[in-house]
From TrEMBL:
Protein name, as recorded: DUF1947 domain-containing protein
NCBIfam families xref list: arCOG00985, unchar_dom_2
Family annotation (PANTHER family): MALIGNANT T-CELL-AMPLIFIED SEQUENCE 1, MCT-1 PROTEIN
Lineage: Archaea, Methanobacteriati, Thermoplasmatota, Thermoplasmata, Thermoplasmatales
Cross-referenced InterPro entries: CHP03684, DUF1947, MCT-1/Tma20, PUA, PUA-like_sf, PUA_sf, Uncharacterised_CHP00451
Domain PUA positions: 72-146
Alphabetical list of Pfam families matching this protein: DUF1947, PUA
GO molecular function, one term: RNA binding
Organism: Oxyplasma meridianum
Length: 153
């Protein structure tokens, strides 16, 4: 199916879906959708913002870098950046700071020291556990530069 603008009803549904991952989509207008089988890619200002496959909703790096969300963010050191950008998990040793509200299985937004978002992940442990232990994997990366989501766009 070709890319087209979404209806008001679909826009309301998108706002509700985005709220589940702590993204405010209320101010978006002229949202377009591109559908391929069970995958949907939503565009705002001609930039891919939200990817949906089945029940999985993933904000793209374009959205994160345009909106700079503070909640559910993890900041990693320069040594971790190239690995995370290639899809490697985020390890506690490479974390400089993280939102203390992060719980196990929360969606997290990973950024570098220059406040550029470089990946989206799923927390494998709570922020409290990670900050206390300072060992092991903290988040599994599900979206990074050059992955399938950005190739679709």
């Amino acid at each position: 199916m070709a890319r087209h603008f979404i209806s008001r009803k679909d826009s309301k549904n998108l706002i509700q879906l985005c709220e589940k991952i702590n993204i405010d989509a209320k101010s978006w207008d002229k949202v377009e959708i591109d559908e391929h089988r069970d995958e949907k890619l939503y565009y705002v200002k001609s930039r891919p913002y939200i990817y949906i496959k089945g029940d999985t909703i993933i904000p793209t790096l374009f959205l994160l870098n345009d909106t700079k969300p503070e909640n559910f963010s993890i900041t990693v050191d320069d040594g971790a950046v190239p690995h995370v950008m290639n899809g490697a998990s985020v390890f506690a040793q490479g974390i400089v700071s993280m939102d203390k509200n992060i719980k196990k299985d929360s969606m997290v937004f990973i950024r570098d020291l220059k406040n550029r978002y470089i990946a989206v992940g799923i927390a494998e442990r709570s922020a409290e556990e990670v900050l206390n232990d300072r060992k092991g994997s903290a988040a599994r990366v599900i979206h990074h530069p050059g992955d399938k989501i950005l190739v679709l766009a």
